[in-house]
Specification:
The protein is of the alpha/beta class and about 500 residues long. It contains 18 helices and 10 strands. The protein binds flavin mononucleotide and iron/sulfur cluster. Flavin mononucleotide binds next to strand 4, helix 16 and helix 18.
Length: about 500
């Protein structure tokens, strides 16, 4: 008998085992590269451990720092990572949900509270960066009725298409409201014939601006406004006491879009490698001029966009050399995380750039074709090698499924990167760095790499980890709490580690 495949079979039935940790003794940790200092521009991180940016959705709707934000970063600081990067923080003073903002001087006092908390709870061991982000508008997927009645701009080509589809010439002169109604009533195949690619995308996914939409308001002048917005934000970060800034040139956002070969702008800010690099270099130059040489400024960018027509490793290598030559203080390498291959959202929801294949490369899980562990190290290795060959010693930061001592140490020994970034393992157990350092590796709570946290992020819900958020009994540090999420179902930060 032939069994039919079940409809709900996973695309990647294989589950990868967590890597063997080979936790170090205290003495081994002391002798390791991981726990040796690294110079990152103007500061020296006491160890090569790095927590990359993770948005926890804990700011106010106005982008202000809350006590929850402070508790979140304070908890990471207790594990004493060498460097901690504060989440993507908006450089404009515009509504963007509970995402931190740095687009006005009024945000400085709140941000300073994070700095003070991290200094205190890391006992001065953790250097603190803030990630600066600009993003373009993305709308929610509309109700089809609303799209056809209000959003779609009716053109003669729509009348022409209706004429072709129906075989009735009177559509050539039909009035707009009739055209709108007729378009809405088309089958989905006929709608695909009548609408152009961008219109179909707006209907099926929600309208999304591109940096090459020169006719759209605010897009043409991006090269004129962004250097000022980024450098104002960098200056505020310096005033708030951060040790440096990370310019967000990665994933689905404005600056990564300028770098992408998909950017066909013809005003000198696209189309060629030099054109694509021009704005990212101008933004960096403006920041450097504002904050001076003695302040750390680096960027996070993509080693591979992992989308059709997007940038690949050879583009990233050229960008890295140009950034290093311009004087950037570090290069943090990420991968994927694009809108172009994101899943279709439900009506009323916006597309999310970590739901497609490129998103999976950005936050690899145990359910994928090949191992998620250290998956992106070959690209950071190639980038680092190329930067070294060009004569620069700019530190390169590697990330993606790094969750074991020997893996991190081997990557450093092999020259895959100079510092080890670990996001989800640090969320699962923020103390894991300190536990390793003290020879207490056996007590590390190990991330499962199944992306429960990323699912919360996708829904813009307060991010927590499945390994500790159901514990509503153990108090937070200092004996209070625990503080619970707004739905009362999950604790907001992990309990203190009794071993430490
Ligand atoms: C909940 C969550 C939020 C994230 N937010 C950001 C962000 O704000 N900026 C960024 O560059 N990367 C962000 N990332 C990506 C991580 O920094 C990291 O690159 C990715 O998770 C892969 O590293 P890992 O395997 O150590 O988790 C986020 C990841 C998660 C899980
Ligand atoms: S929720 Fe899952 S993937 Fe996220 S940090 Fe916790 S164990 Fe890791």
């Amino acid at each position: 008998m032939i069994h039919k495949p079940r409809a709900n079979i996973q695309p990647y039935p294989m589950t990868h085992e967590l890597p063997e940790p080979h936790w170090p003794s205290r003495e081994q940790a002391e002798r390791s590269l991981l726990f040796s200092p690294a110079k990152v521009g103007a500061f020296t991180a006491p160890t090569r451990s790095w927590i990359p940016a993770m948005v926890p959705w804990r700011a106010t709707e106005e982008g202000e720092v809350t006590q929850d934000v402070i508790d979140w970063y304070g908890r990471f600081a207790e594990g004493q990572p060498g460097v901690l990067v504060i989440e993507a923080t908006g450089i404009r003073d515009v509504a963007s949900g509970p995402l931190l903002r740095i687009g006005h001087d009024r945000y400085i006092p709140g941000l300073k509270r994070i700095v003070d908390e991290v200094r205190e709870r890391s006992k001065g061991q953790t250097k603190l960066l803030i990630q600066l982000i600009d993003f373009l508008s993305i709308r929610r997927r509309p109700e089809p009725e609303k799209f056809f009645a209000r959003f779609l701009q009716i053109q003669d080509r729509h009348r022409e298409a209706l004429t072709q589809i129906t075989g009735q010439a009177e559509w050539k002169t039909a009035d707009e409201s009739q055209v709108r109604t007729a378009l809405q009533e088309l089958s989905s195949e006929d709608a695909a014939r009548a609408l152009d690619g961008r219109e179909l995308e707006s209907l099926r996914y929600g309208a999304r601006q591109r940096v090459w939409d020169m006719h759209e308001p605010g897009i043409e002048e991006l090269p004129r406004v962004l250097p000022g917005l980024f450098s104002d934000a960098a200056d505020r970060a310096k005033q708030a006491g951060f040790d440096g800034v990370e310019l967000h040139y990665a994933h689905a956002y404005t600056m990564a879009s300028f770098l992408s070969p998909l950017n066909r702008r013809t005003d000198g800010y696209g189309s060629t490698l030099e054109g694509r690099l021009r704005l990212p270099l101008e933004v960096f130059a403006a920041c450097r001029e504002r904050v001076g040489k003695d302040y750390t400024v680096g960027c996070r960018f993509l080693g591979d966009e992992v989308i059709e027509g997007g940038g690949r490793l050879h583009d990233a290598v050229a960008y890295a050399r140009a950034f290093a030559a311009a004087g950037m203080d570090f290069l943090s390498v990420s991968k994927g995380g694009k809108f172009e291959d994101a899943k279709q959202p439900r009506v009323g929801q916006a597309a999310y750039p970590y739901t497609g294949p490129s998103g999976l490369e950005c936050m690899p899980t145990v359910r994928m074709d090949a191992t998620p562990f250290g998956r992106n190290l070959p690209i950071s290795h190639a980038i680092r090698q190329s930067v070294r060959d060009a004569g620069f010693d700019t530190p390169v930061i590697g990330a993606g499924g790094i969750a074991a001592f020997h893996q991190a140490e081997q990557a450093l020994q092999d020259g895959d990167c100079d510092l080890i970034a670990s996001a989800r393992q640090s969320l699962a157990d923020p103390d894991w760095w300190l536990k390793m350092q003290r020879g207490l590796g056996d007590s590390v709570r190990r991330c499962k790499f199944t992306n429960y946290c990323e699912g919360l992020d996708q829904k813009h819900k307060q991010v927590t980890c499945q390994l500790w958020d159901k514990d509503k009994e153990t108090p937070d540090r200092g004996g209070a709490g625990p503080v619970l999420s707004s739905d009362g179902k999950r604790r907001m930060v992990p309990p203190a580690s009794p071993e430490l």
